[in-house]
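Continuing the series of single-chain predictions for the mutant panel. This is the parent chain; the variants come on the following pages.
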Amino acid sequence: MFLLGIVSLFQAVFLPGFIIYKGFLRLKGGLHLLLPVSFALSMVYNYILVYFLAATGFYCRQMMLWILLFELILAGYLFRDQIKEIAKMEISSSLSFWIKERWGRLYDALDSMLRSGSRTVSPREGQAAFVLSCIITALAAICVLSEVRYIYMSIGNGFGAWDAVLSWNRWAMDWYHGHPPEQSWEYPQVIPVNWSLSYIFMGFPLQFFPKMTIILFPFLIFFMFFVTGLERKSIRFIAAVPVLEMLFRHVNYEELGGDVDVAATFMGLCSILCILRAKWTEFYEESWKWIFAGALIACGSAVTKQSGLMIMALFPLLAWILFLREDLSWKTMNFTAKAYKLMLFVFMAVFMVLPYYAYKKMLFDMQTDQSNVWYVTKAIYGDKGELQRFVIASRLFLAQGIAGDKEVTGARFSSVDLNKGFQALYEFFAPHALDCAIPLALIILLLCYAMKDPFSRWTTLLISLPFYIVWSLYYCYDLRNLSMALPFMALAAGTGVEMILSKFTILSLFGRMRLPVILLIALLIGAYYNWGPANEEAMKKKQAKIEREMGLTNLNNLLYEYHEKHGINKKIISNYEYIGMLPGFEGKLTYHGFEPALDDKYLKFEVEDYFRFINDSEVGFILFPGYANKIVLGDILARMEKGEYTLIFESNGYRFVKINRETDKK
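Parent structure:
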């Protein structure tokens, strides 16, 4: 099973994309391009492949093993010349030569950078800039290594966050059983499809390997920035790394570990950086190959999460603004050739993106699935208007995203009375003013400098700013929904740093460096110590332990404690969906939303739903949140006072009560 898990991971994150990258597109570039672009292309390829196999009824382990064999044979054929050269060389001598060559390049680059610093930066302000650049580079390297450590610490873990367990992995299980998920709302399926590959190859839904795919995304974003900065001798990418580390840490991706926002962000960022790579390439044919790869990945972003639709729509415009309008080959190209290249992108979007969203629209019309757009953009906020949401979102971004105060909540759980005018705004923002003032002033300063750079200017105006506005009005119940804009914000900040330091002639201080292979060795050592002694039974036991801790661990423990002492032999009304997935609680959940309603129709449905459930003799308990709508919450509290319900415990904003029925006394 372990070997097949490794094979599935290899298929999900590298092999197909590597064949496309090196074999068909024949793109050039170092490891910092090969790894992320191969990863993104593999995810897109697997999505198309699995969709086709599932639709035709051939998605199974045997078929995937045959496809894997074909890919390996194809890779061997495409790289036959390189394999022959390697076969002629002695492994020990070639490995020794490779290590010496890489270490020599790294040593020479460091030596060159230090020498250039001491030679060209003699003024006092230049020396200060040199010291600052070294500090920024060191901070960026630490951030990259911290992502490597996060990968190492996550080896052997499963999914525990709400969306990962109750949505994304549940849909992966549907793919594992050979069919598209029916209750997936508008959410696209690149990640569940690739997770299902591990389950198909292993024949068992072991979460360790799918979890490995999702935790690679933050690392690859940092890796792209850091090594691109070293390669391009540009501190803007280096300086963006610590800024992005701060933003990502405040969003708390490591704790969420399993939400796909960062995956869609990676795909969107990778596609836009392909435009830059096309601009930096000297050869016409290779430039267009990079544009093609970027377009393919942009379409992949649109079927990773809905936020990627914005990147897909903007990709042709950004390709024209950042590259094509200055490219001589594009200017001299006739109208037919231009129309052909544009139609090729349209064909990608129609072939990859349109079928899924059209399929979901058909299910909505047939009422076999339902849209949740109205819920996440309106109902989830109760009666809060757009202006209130914008104000709450601004505090959330500043207080949590910038200052790191994780106690601040989004518009679902926060409110502000704008009828009080300026006084309300002052009281709302005042507790966070000191924490936010300096970072906000620094961001504004860096942004003003960054607007001088075309890339930062256009990505800010077309991606970051519009995305922030849409998020603050309609998706501000959680900061992670802003993820797509964060790398571009960080890169704009990095550009501002570069603009400031360039006044001290700092650009000459960066030489061409390649990241040492030590990072890969650390990963391999960590994998060996975590997986070496493992066996199938041990992994299954660990899986069971992980499943008991998914969601709110303290709440789960109290449920298990009561179950072990008194027994829970009847169903539980709750919106805490983990109940249905906890070992020993299978079939115990009767789902009820307990949501504050926006209109009378939805409120009536909620109340009728509640009374129907409590009158069901198979239901014996209620686990309800404190934010339940007033009618349902009032009825529960009134019945508790009358003794019809008995409070068992309170935890994490939930109360667990037992319904006292006459049949229980007999």
